[in-house]
Design a protein that fits this description.
- The complex is a heterotrimer of chains A (222), B (309) and C (291).
- Chain A has 222 residues and is of the alpha+beta class.
- Chain A contains four helices and twelve strands, in the order H-E-E-E-E-E-H-E-E-E-E-E-E-H-H-E.
- Chain A has one domain: Clam (outer membrane lipoprotein receptor (LolB), chain A).
- Chain A is 18% helix and 46% strand.
- In chain A, strand 6 and strand 7 form a beta hairpin.
- The longest helix of chain A has 24 residues.
- Chain A is globular.
- Chain B has three domains: 143 residues, P-loop containing nucleotide triphosphate hydrolases (Rossmann fold, 3-Layer(aba) Sandwich), CATH 3.40.50; 54 residues; 70 residues, 2-Layer Sandwich (Alpha-Beta Plaits).
- Chain B is 34% helix and 27% strand.
- In chain B, the strands form three sheets. Chain B has a six-stranded mixed sheet with strand order 6-7-8-3-9-10, with helices on both faces.
- Chain C is mostly helical and 291 residues long.
- Chain C has one domain.
- Helices cover 67% and strands 4% of the residues of chain C.
- Chain C is built from eleven helices and three strands.
- The chains are: A alpha+beta (222), B alpha/beta (309), C mainly alpha (291).
- Chains A and C meet through strand 1, strand 2, strand 5 and helix 3 of A and strand 1 and strand 3 of C.
- Strand 2 of chain A pairs parallel with strand 3 of chain C.
Chain lengths: 222, 309, 291
């Protein structure tokens, strides 16, 4: 009985924590930010690109590169923090506390109740004191598992990060020489270590300026 | 008389087997129309190409305008024009364009009018702007001559210039050669198979066979009746030659050209009956006595007997 | 010398067959541009099939810069034949027409004539490449617009910023000009040995095909000779489109991954060009002209 009540209390705490985080995030109706995006995938050589990020409640999210070609992990980045906890149709499971770096973060797992949901499970690592999600590991049906790491600064009151690092899985990249017409290519087969490295990708977005709740036309998200 | 061309001991071997020109020596004087004769494969074209530095001699020396050819090629070629064998030009260009190109290549700057005049001289003014591929053989030959003359050369080498020409064309070439030589004082070396034509224009000539000189000299000497070359055939030419050498006729016997096939003698044509009579008196069985009156006779005779100068 | 080169260029450009090469280049480029304009999306989808399973690629990927790169990969294999059509005809064609003997009785040395012809052949080569550049690069930029250049190599992908592409094309075309000059020099050399152009043209292409096969076969015994084959280095222009990355795997704008490869390839090509020309000179100066 005591254990049941105790566990009920802990569960409530986790739900309460999520509510607190959600309340903070809901302060933001929309935002527009400029930033710099760095793509770090082993088999891609890409320069840093300047981007603009747009968000509108409840789950409209768009990254636009200022000219040029952008490479974004499939599906993942469009899932931002707000959309993770936008709906209330999930089961909250308290997974205790874990050290992440130098911080002790509360681990809460969210299990969508809808079977049709693309998200299978999201594990949130929350800074209880600030009510900020510092890390999120999400497993989806379509696009595998990805990790988001957040650093906060000037806009932490809105729950808006200064920097987001997005880690995801990629397929090993190889095109036949007959397609690329690179018959002269004499690169050796990749080692196991390199193959493993190729299977992980990283996108890092550093936000420069937020323009919060100033209104964003719907056409931007088309 | 100054030599325009002086050739000494010229030899050309192709590989180890074939000698096209063998120790050939001759000279061409200023103002000569020099006939260069020989059967097909005698070495005429090879010799002409060596004179034009198209072929490198195996040995021997060539001097043109008194200068060694190899060391002074550029200076010499500025004053030489040539038509070598079949007329060659850029058939995808017009006559005028061809002449303009070769004028530029000769280092000669000529105006449009001057070039058209050159074409007029050879009777091609009306076809100046037609593509050469539409020309007849005779027209091409005339254009080739115009191209050879574009730099106003002092020495002109013509290799078979009357090939493919009709009788009028041949006559035109003959007159052109005479004009170049007699009027303009140019030196012309012409090789041809039309011996009757050479006979009419050549002041000096050379006959070669298998790369060797058979005879060289002034045309008038070669056809001078007082120096008629006579070919005599007897029942035993060797014996007859020995007998003649013991008589007053000895000085007339051309011992180098005589063989077991015939006896060659050079004498005044008027003495022929006396010679015939003496031969019979000596008991020599005479089969024929044939004087060589024309260049063709001379040529055919001399190139068929294996004796060399 | 200048007037000799002028005459040689005059002869080249008065000849109808010269324009076959320019026409062929225009036709080939036109066909490729037409095809990509019509159905470029299918081509891209096919190329990006693997990549798009894990990445969302946004932007004008099929732009003029990428189209030009695709065309260069295809055309620079075939342009040598068009170069050989003229270069391998420079001496043998004259011999065939009988005009070689006329050229060689003019008051300049054989060396001067050969040099003038070689310079004319190089100028033709450069003009063909300029024509290629105008149609392939500027034409594609006009038809397809410009954006970053997204290059799919066999084992990795290169994304070049739009502002970082054009100078690379200048370098690539310059290098291609050098490579084609080497082809011209080879054709020129082989031209000395024949009195008919077909032989040298076919021989030039055969040498290039044969050496290209040796250059691309990954058989250890051939790897010894590969560095010395000029065909191995002819594709050095591609090095202009590879970029260095820093420790954070960030592409360094304005850099080239292997600049030393470009330098080495250039030196090999220059050496071959000079070698072919000197060999031509040595043979031609002593050659008896019987044509």
């Amino acid at each position: 009985m005591f254990i049941f009540c105790a566990s009920l209390a802990i569960a409530q705490d986790a739900s309460q924590l999520i509510k607190k985080v959600k309340a903070k995030l809901e302060l933001v109706d929309n935002y527009e930010a400029t930033g710099v995006m760095k793509t770090d995938i082993a088999f891609i050589k890409a320069p840093i690109g300047k981007i603009k990020i747009y968000f509108k409640k409840p789950n409209l999210f768009k990254i636009k590169k200022e000219g040029g070609i952008s490479l974004l992990p499939k599906g993942g980045l469009s899932v931002n923090l707000s959309s993770l906890i936008a709906s209330s149709n999930y089961t909250t499971i308290d997974a205790g506390v874990q050290d992440v770096g130098t911080k002790k973060l509360r681990v809460v797992k969210l299990l969508p109740n809808e079977e049709t949901s693309d998200v299978v499970i999201s594990t949130l690592y929350i800074n209880e004191k600030e009510s900020l999600i510092e890390k999120a590991v999400t497993t989806t049906k379509e696009n595998g598992t990805y990790t988001m790491l957040m650093n906060y600064g000037a806009y932490s009151n809105y729950g808006l990060p200064d920097k987001v690092v997005f880690e995801f899985n990629t397929k090993n990249y190889k095109l036949p020489k007959g397609i690329t017409l690179e018959f002269e290519d004499d690169s050796k087969p990749l080692s196991a270590a390199q193959q493993l490295k190729n299977k992980k990708g990283r996108v890092e977005i550093s936000y420069k300026n937020y323009s919060v709740n100033k209104g964003i036309p719907a056409a931007v998200f088309n | 008389m100054s030599s325009v061309i002086q050739v000494q001991g010229l030899t050309k071997k192709f590989g180890h087997q074939f000698t096209a020109v063998n120790d050939l020596s001759f000279s061409v004087n200023k103002g000569d129309v020099y006939g260069f004769l020989g059967q097909n494969g005698a070495g005429k074209s090879t010799t002409i190409r060596m004179l034009l530095s198209l072929i490198t001699p195996t040995s021997g020396s060539i001097e043109i305008f008194g200068m060694p050819l190899q060391a002074n090629r550029a200076a010499i070629m500025q004053n030489v024009g040539a038509v070598i064998e079949k007329p060659a030009m850029y058939e995808y260009l017009t006559a005028y364009q061809n002449l303009k190109i070769f004028s530029a290549l000769s280092g000669v700057s000529k105006t449009r009018l001057q070039l058209l005049h050159e074409l007029d001289v050879v009777g091609l003014a009306a076809r100046a702007h037609d593509l050469v591929r539409t020309f007849s053989q005779g027209m091409k030959q005339r254009l080739a001559i115009a191209m050879a003359m574009v730099n106003d050369p002092q020495l002109i080498l013509l290799d078979e210039p009357t090939n493919g020409l009709d009788p009028q064309g041949i006559a035109d070439i003959r007159n052109l050669i005479l004009q170049l030589s007699r009027v303009q004082g140019k030196t012309v070396l012409v090789s041809s198979h039309l011996l009757s034509e050479i006979e009419q224009v050549a002041t000096r000539l050379i006959i070669i066979d298998k790369g060797c000189k058979l005879v060289e000299g002034d045309s008038k000497d070669l056809f001078d009746k007082s120096k008629t070359v006579v070919a005599i055939q007897t029942l035993n030419n060797i014996e007859a030659t020995k007998q003649l050498m013991q008589t007053n006729w000895a000085s007339h016997v051309l011992i180098d050209r005589s063989s077991d096939k015939e006896i060659c003698m050079q004498l005044d044509e008027k003495l022929l009956p006396t010679l015939h009579k003496n031969l019979v008196e000596m008991g020599i069985g005479v089969l024929s006595v044939k004087p060589m009156h024309s260049l063709e006779d001379y040529f055919l005779r001399i190139t068929s007997t294996p004796s060399y100068v | 010398m200048f007037s000799l080169v002028q005459v040689e260029l005059y002869k080249i450009f008065k000849r109808p067959r010269t324009y076959i090469a320019f026409g062929a280049v225009a036709a080939l480029i036109g066909i490729i541009q037409f095809g990509l304009k019509l159905d470029g999306k299918s081509y891209l989808d096919f190329m990006l099939n693997d990549l798009s399973s894990s990445l969302e690629i946004d932007g004008k990927i099929l732009n003029g810069y990428l189209v030009c790169y695709v065309m260069l990969q295809l055309l620079l294999v075939h342009v040598p034949l068009l170069i050989a059509l003229i270069a391998a005809d420079m001496i043998s064609g004259e011999a065939n027409m009988g005009t070689l003997r006329l050229l060689l009785i003019k008051p300049y040395s054989r060396t001067t004539l050969l040099l003038a012809k070689f310079i004319a052949a190089i100028i033709y080569t450069l003009m063909l490449l300029v024509w290629l550049a105008i149609l392939a690069l500027f034409g594609s930029m006009l038809l397809f617009g410009t954006d970053d250049m997204f290059l799919l190599k066999t084992s990795y992908v290169v994304l070049l910023k739009e502002s970082d592409v054009f100078w690379r094309y200048i370098g690539a075309f310059g290098f291609a000009a050098l490579a084609m000059t080497t082809v011209a020099a080879l054709g020129f050399f082989l031209s000395v040995f024949a009195e008919n152009s077909i032989g040298p043209i076919v021989a030039t292409m055969s040498v290039i095909v044969f050496f290209t096969i040796l250059s691309t076969l990954n058989i250890p015994i051939f790897n010894i000779i590969k560095p010395y084959l000029f065909t191995t280095h002819m594709i050095g222009w591609k090095e202009f489109f590879d970029i260095k990355v820093n420790a954070s795997n960030e592409a360094i704008i304005g850099s080239i991954q292997n600049p030393e490869k470009i330098v080495k390839a250039s030196l090999v090509l220059v050496a071959h060009t000079i070698g072919f020309f000197v060999a031509t000179l040595l043979v031609f100066r002593k050659k008896d002209i019987l044509s």
